Amino acid sequence: MKNKEALLTYLKSQNLMALSTSGEYVSNCIVYYAIDNEFNLYFISEPDSEHCKNIATNPHIACSIADTHQNVGDKKIGVQIKGTVQDVHGIDKLNTIIDLWNSTNPGIESVISINNFRNKIIKSRAYKIQPLEFKFFNEELYGEEGFETFAWYTDGKLRSISEFQKEFF
């Protein structure tokens, strides 16, 4: 449980992710993101971008998050994520996501606003990543080259794979 909280704390401390999608071609991009307490990640992007066109035909993604200020000799920390993406519809949901995104990525609230979405002043849409698996690299927690994998289980809980194996096997 403690390591799951460390994962969420780390993800909340960052705001850039490398997002990989696959459609007619493979695409990779960097997006600003925000995360909620249920481990859903949100980003805002234009639907005409290559990665969003890919998402429209294949919602399966992979992404990586790492502190770009880490020195090569530092203890490494970062996350690899597998999941699915959907674009978000509905003013109430959109408003909540925009507030969360702007609080994580301050400075352009006048651009990324519910009014600009509603009035189609910007072409961007909000997207939600529902993670299926997190691979949390954290040499401080797990030692050199150490990591822990977390996944969603049929009971709807995010658990460490090693925790799950101890509990059920």
UniProtKB/TrEMBL annotation:
<feature type="domain" description="Pyridoxamine 5'-phosphate oxidase N-terminal">
    <location>
        <begin position="5"/>
        <end position="89"/>
    </location>
</feature>
<dbReference type="InterPro" id="IPR011576">
    <property type="entry name" value="Pyridox_Oxase_N"/>
</dbReference>
<protein>
    <recommendedName>
        <fullName>Pyridoxamine 5'-phosphate oxidase N-terminal domain-containing protein</fullName>
    </recommendedName>
</protein>
<dbReference type="Pfam" id="PF01243">
    <property type="entry name" value="PNPOx_N"/>
</dbReference>
<dbReference type="InterPro" id="IPR012349">
    <property type="entry name" value="Split_barrel_FMN-bd"/>
</dbReference>
